[in-house]
Amino acid sequence: MRYDRDGFPIPPGFDVESPRSPPPVLEPASAPRRGGKRLVLAAVAIAVLAAIAMPEALRLVRHLVVNWSLERAAACEARDDVGGAVVELGRALRWRGADADLLCLRAMLRLEDQDAAGALDDAEAAAAEAPLAVQPLRVRALAHVVLGHADDALAAAGRVVELATPGDAEALNFRAYVRALVGREIPEALADIEAAIVAVGDAPPELLDTRGYVLFLAGRTQEAIDQFNLAIDGMRQHRREFTRIADRIDPDEFARRLRALDHGLAVMLHHRALACEKAGLVEQAKQDFELARKKGFDPSRGIM
């Protein structure tokens, strides 16, 4: 007879687990059913495909948001909501990342929104993105003009000419105009604009206006008035031709481009008003000043 540790007899055929006996061995779990394995493999495949497709999906979303923001910015500009256009371009930049062209576009709108310091920041950021591009330098020069930084404006305009093709009419015209705006280096400005007009042959209104303004600052008032008359007539002709295609382009784009033409015309009218005033043509000067104001002339907004 066997007895347990407490002295009680153990019935035959009955066994007691010893406190030191090893723990029971667990049998291995049965293999998962074949359908479960297929589900696991499918889930893994979906995860891999999502990882591959995600960058492409993000690029598509980014493209859509940027284009939508640019369209909204153009619509805001067409309605003279310059602040709204700045906000929309800010969204486009956040989604696309630093982009020299978009930064320059926002900088010009910031100038119109009387934020010359912000425009200068955008121009500097654009120049960092595209060190050899001239547009950031052009915007930088205009921002410095509005801020009253004549030396910096002249330096930026000079760099525009250095980076452009030798004899580039647009670059020469720009430097001449910046020199005129800050009232410095007028003989050099006259040489610039004469070289630009020779380069293009048939001078467009913008170049004729620059020549007129430089001649005005040089004291050649009647010659200046003659140039302004030609420039204004040419710009009005451009405007008439553009309005004929109004039904062939997007309404917002039409309004935005017409607005730019009117700003250019406003500047020319203001210049002629200055010259007429100096020449004693008081009524003509008064009429030109008023029309220039109505069409948007405002140096504090970069329309100069």
What is the number of helical segments per DSSP (H or I, 4+ residues)? 12
How big is the Rg? 37 Å
Give, in spatial order, the strands making up the sheet with the most strands. 1-2
Distance between the termini: 120 Å
Q: Low-confidence spans: pLDDT under 50, at least 5 residues?
A: 1-33
Q: Main β-sheet, in a few words?
A: 2 strands, antiparallel
Question: Which H/E pattern describes the elements?
Answer: EEHHHHHHHHHHHH
Any idea what the shape is?
globular
What's the pLDDT, averaged over the residues? Answer: 87
Please tally the β strands and state the result: 2
Portion in helices: over 70%
Features:
12 helices, globular, disordered N terminus, mainly alpha, 1% strand, two-stranded antiparallel sheet
Describe, in plain words, how this protein is organized in 3D.
- This protein is mostly helical and 304 residues long.
- The protein has twelve helices and two strands.
- A hairpin with a 5-residue loop joins strand 1 (2-3) and strand 2 (9-10).
- The radius of gyration is 37 Å and the shape is globular.
- The termini are far apart.
Write the layout of secondary structure elements.
Elements: E1 2-3, E2 9-10, H1 34-78, H2 82-96, H3 100-112, H4 116-129, H5 135-147, H6 150-163, H7 169-182, H8 186-200, H9 205-217, H10 221-243, H11 251-279, H12 282-294
Antiparallel strand pairs: 1-2
